[in-house]
Structures are given as structure tokens and as C-alpha cells.
Specification:
This protein has about 150 residues and is of the alpha/beta class. It has five helices and three strands, in the order H-H-E-H-E-H-E-H. The protein has helices at about 10-15, 25-35, 60-75, 90-100, 125-135; strands at about 40-45, 80, 105-110. Helix 2 crosses helix 3 (about 60-75). About 20% of the residues are buried. The mean pLDDT is about 85.
């Protein structure tokens, strides 16, 4: 959907039957409907950045996500994020962290598409570094280590 997002007509969205153009916010009524029905929106592409998109198709994954998240924020719709690529895109982990931080409506992120290349010695260390770099929420008392390593 982010292909041709940088044009006025957003033809990728129109081709898919979604009326969102430079002059009409098609995500606003969707977010409104989600809010009315207490639904959460699930958005893939949290690892995509505009820098890594081909210039010739006027793609903007970042602007598309920003538009959708703005509509969700306005209507208080929670958003769950997902990655899009299997083996990771250049700068993908940094882009995910960017989307998870700040004033975003994201409340959950799920890392999908863990194929054979994902667990390769070339890729997996960078994934573990990414996970370790995320903020660790406070542990629940059930998750704390026991004293002396014994069960009570």
C-alpha cells in the first residue's frame, strides 16, 4: 500500500479499493469504526523506512504509517505493529525502535517471518542485540528470581 503513496492519487490504495488520496483521509473513518467497536488495528511494515524504498515508485511506508497512527491516536485506537520482511531490511531494527518510541499508539509489537536466514549466524546476533536494546518493563513478582534458587 505504501507504493506510490508520494503521489496525489495514491494508486496502490485505490487499486486495492481503498479511497485514500492526498485530499481525502481514508483512514480516519476506518479508525473511527475501529474505536466504535473497540477493535485494535494491526499494522505490518514497522521495519520499513523511506530511505530503503525505490525512488521511482514514490513509496513512503513512513508517511503511510504516520497517517494511520495519527487517525488511531485521534480516535484512541490501539495499534499492534509487525515487521514485513523475513530476513530483515537494512536499518529495520532501528526503524522498529523508532516506531516503538515517542508518542505512538503502539502497545504491542510482534516479530514475524522468522525463516532459516533469520537464525543464521549472520543475522541472529543482530536480532538478539535489537531485543536486548529494547526497554525492559518492570518484572512482575512472579518473574523475579527466587532466593537461593529454590522454590518456595
Amino acid at each position: 500500500m505504501h507504493s506510490w503513496y508520494g503521489t496525489r492519487s495514491h494508486p496502490s490504495e485505490l487499486t486495492a479499493g481503498f479511497y485514500n488520496t492526498a485530499n481525502r483521509d481514508g483512514y480516519e473513518p476506518v479508525a473511527q469504526t475501529f474505536a466504535k467497536n473497540s477493535c485494535k488495528m494491526i499494522l505490518p511494515g514497522m521495519d520499513l523506512s523511506d530511505v530503503n524504498q525505490p525512488k521511482e515508485n514514490h513509496s513512503s511506508a513512513e508517511l503511510l504509517l504516520a497517517q494511520i497512527m495519527a487517525a488511531c491516536r485521534k480516535h484512541e485506537v490501539k495499534v499492534s505493529g509487525q515487521n514485513s520482511s523475513e530476513s530483515g531490511v537494512p536499518g529495520g531494527f532501528e526503524q522498529i525502535k523508532k516506531n516503538l518510541s515517542g508518542d505512538n499508539v503502539l502497545d504491542l509489537f510482534t516479530y514475524h517471518r522468522m525463516g532459516a536466514s533469520f537464525f543464521s549466524p549472520e543475522h541472529f546476533p543482530s536480532f538478539t542485540e535489537f531485543v536486548r536494546s529494547l526497554k525492559q518493563p518492570e518484572l512482575h513478582s512472579d518473574d523475579l528470581p527466587t532466593r537461593g534458587g529454590r522454590r518456595r
